[in-house]
Specification:
Blueprint (H helix, E strand, L loop, with lengths): L6 E6 L17 H6 L4 E6 L1 H4 L9 E4 L6 E4 L8 H11 L6 E6 L11 E4 L5 E6 L2 H9 L5 E3 L6 H22 L4 H10 L1 H7 L1 H12 L4 H17 L4 H12 L8 H15 L6 H14 L2 H4 L18
Parallel strand pairs: 1-2, 1-5, 3-6, 5-8
Antiparallel strand pairs: 3-4, 6-7
Length: 316
């Protein structure tokens, strides 16, 4: 992946305003269509349309065992597209190697990531306990791929976390594409240090020994990225951000005078108390970083984990 190549994200086509839903409508997601589209390219897929179901079309739903449901017509039980959907998913998902994330359509019997309604053969609801057939196959084939659905992306913390994971995963894809080496792994780990500390300190401590090992690099890389993506999947807490900010603050102890040190300490404390957004102490640290050029911090992704104009840290 070159520096100029835009990151690709898979997405349910209806979320980009495509009129592909059963009623000819869409579920346009402004965050994707208006915001993410400035920096990311989308690979849009409508599984139901892809298996030959027209627009408009009969509605379908998950029926039977929630772990192995059938995909059956809501009003016509003779309409069964389970095999067609599974065949499409098994053929398509292994080819999705260029994407770095996926946004699915919530509650869809084909694309729902979680909490999709499931029914028994008599039409009685079993609860929101299902996963869309295409989504299930996608997540099984690409377990490390950052996946979210449109409804959850209304949450500012989940939104920020998803984009952060997409960009971080694309970096990993880039270094493995050029051929993973111990040096590349060391650099990747070092530059993500404070992001990892903000998300999961326990896993961060587990990753260091993997980086330091002398074993076969690809096997080490596989173990590393599994734990790395698991760490980032946990949204960063205020407590962990506070600890991380205080850790970074220590790098400036020999550069700041007493007044600046006090002001920085008070700003971090106010963030921890919920009186300031994360952006305020980060901007203060970024200012000092540019002024004093602390080498270890200059290329840390914690300060700029994704494009700034997405404004994802404004509400945190």
């Amino acid at each position: 992946m070159s520096q100029t190549q835009r990151i690709q994200i898979g997405i349910s086509a209806c979320l980009l305003g495509e009129p592909v839903r059963y009623d000819g409508g869409h579920k346009r997601l402004p965050f994707a269509d208006d915001e993410l589209s400035r920096h990311f390219d989308f690979l849009k897929i409508c599984p139901e349309q892809a298996i030959g179901m027209g627009v408009p079309r009969p509605t379908i739903r998950l029926v039977g065992d929630p772990d192995k449901p059938q995909l059956i017509g809501s009003s016509n039980a003779e309409l069964n597209v389970t095999d067609a959907m599974q065949a499409f998913a098994k053929e398509t998902t292994p080819k999705l190697t260029e994407i770095s994330g996926y946004i699915l359509c919530a509650k869809s019997p084909s694309c729902g990531m979680e909490r999709v309604p499931v029914y028994d053969e008599q039409g009685n609801g079993l609860g929101k306990v299902g996963v869309g057939l295409f989504a299930r196959q996608l997540m099984a084939v690409h377990p490390l791929l950052p996946v979210e659905e449109n409804g959850r992306l209304n949450d500012v913390h989940l939104r920020e976390n998803f984009v952060l994971r997409v960009v971080a995963y694309s970096r990993w894809q880039a270094i493995t594409a050029q051929g993973l080496s111990s040096k590349l792994l060391e650099d990747f780990h070092r530059r993500h240090k404070f992001l990892l500390l903000a998300h999961n300190q326990a896993i961060y401590r587990e990753l260091g020994p993997i980086v330091a090992e002398a074993g076969e690099i690809n096997e080490r890389g596989e173990r590393y990225i599994k734990k790395f993506m698991l760490a980032l999947k946990q949204p960063a807490s205020t407590k962990n951000h506070t600890n991380t900010l205080m850790h970074i603050q220590g790098f400036f102890k020999d550069h700041l005078d007493a007044d600046d040190r006090l002001k920085l300490t008070e700003t971090v404390r106010d963030y921890a108390a919920g009186q300031l957004p994360l952006l305020v102490p980060l901007e203060m640290l970024s200012h000092y970083l540019k002024k004093y050029h602390i080498d270890y911090l200059l290329d840390q992704y914690y300060f700029d984990p994704y494009p700034r104009d997405l404004k994802l840290r404004m509400g945190m």
